[in-house]
Amino acid sequence: PTGAKVEVLLVKPKDSAWEYWEAMVRPGKRLKSGDEVVIDDEASILVLDRLSGGMRLVRIKGEDTPYNIIEKKGKVPLPPYIRGNGRASKHYQTVYARVDGSVAAPTAGFHFTEELLDKLRSCGIELAYVTLHVGPGTFRPVKVDDVRKHEMHCEDYNISFDTAERINKAKKEGRRIIAVGTTVVRCLESSSDEEGFVLFGKGSTDLFIFPGYKFKVVDGMVTNFHLPKSTLLMLVSAFAGYDFVMEAYKVAIERRYRFYSFGDAMLII
């Protein structure tokens, strides 16, 4: 062992046992194929190959199962502006999360407590849930002059038959579909047909929504305040209009609203 410290961010499992992963490593130039990152006496991570986009193929090694190694020895990948303490890790999750797989939490959902969800149900608001595994590409800033040339990484999603049926029934009855977060927007828009009806099942999406996009499913959304030059801000601008969104951001700054993961949110309808 060299004693050097490295960071391995597990992005996407490549097998059902969670032994092989697509991962981001830092510092990337230091880790080559065949290198082994020692976690402790019981576990390590073997770098197998270099993938496109600066990613690596890695293997979780140890006496325990890969899943247990990750659960016991891994840490929640918090954004760099959040101090990595136990309290932040515990709260960096929605109350309705059920399936492991995202590299980040859908932060618009942070605003919904169990109490608030119960109040929404009591008001006659129907709730439906989808799964979308947020990938690191969601947060990549757009660095090209022509946004059509920006490359989005694929993210896996899963929509149950029940959820698709309930959404489609609501649309047929003229009720509004309000998405909680940009991840839900991308999930629903990616899984719909040309008439705006949602298809159930598993899929993968690299849909990049920017001004000019014609929404087929979503009638409104709850979303946090996003950074400039981000795909998230472009999605919101595509839905509500660039000038309107910029005016909302101006008001938010004047009134000292909070940005980022644990910040304030807005409802666009």
UniProtKB/TrEMBL annotation:
Pathways involved: tRNA modification; tRNA-queuosine biosynthesis
Enzyme class name: transferase
Output one GO BP term. tRNA queuosine(34) biosynthetic process
Task: Cite the entry's keywords alphabetically.
Answer: Cytoplasm, Glycosyltransferase, Isomerase, Queuosine biosynthesis, S-adenosyl-L-methionine, Transferase
Where in or outside the cell it occurs: the entry states: Cytoplasm
Highest taxon, organism lineage: Bacteria
Q: Main localisation, per the record?
A: cytoplasm
Catalytic activity from the UniProt record: 7-aminomethyl-7-carbaguanosine(34) in tRNA + S-adenosyl-L-methionine = epoxyqueuosine(34) in tRNA + adenine + L-methionine + 2 H(+)
- The enzyme's E.C. designation: 2.4.99.17
Q: Choose one Gene Ontology CC annotation of this protein and give it.
A: cytoplasm
Q: What GO molecular function terms would the record report?
A: S-adenosylmethionine:tRNA ribosyltransferase-isomerase activity
Q: InterPro entries annotated for this entry?
A: QueA (IPR003699), QueA_dom1 (IPR042118), QueA_dom2 (IPR042119), QueA_sf (IPR036100)
Listed PANTHER family? S-ADENOSYLMETHIONINE:TRNA RIBOSYLTRANSFERASE-ISOMERASE
What assembly does the database describe for this protein?
Monomer.
Q: Which family does it belong to?
A: Belongs to the QueA family.
Fetch the NCBIfam families from UniProt.
Answer: PRK00147.1 (NF001140), queA (TIGR00113)
What is this protein's record name?
S-adenosylmethionine:tRNA ribosyltransferase-isomerase
Q: What is the lineage of its organism?
A: Bacteria, Thermotogati, Synergistota, Synergistia, Synergistales
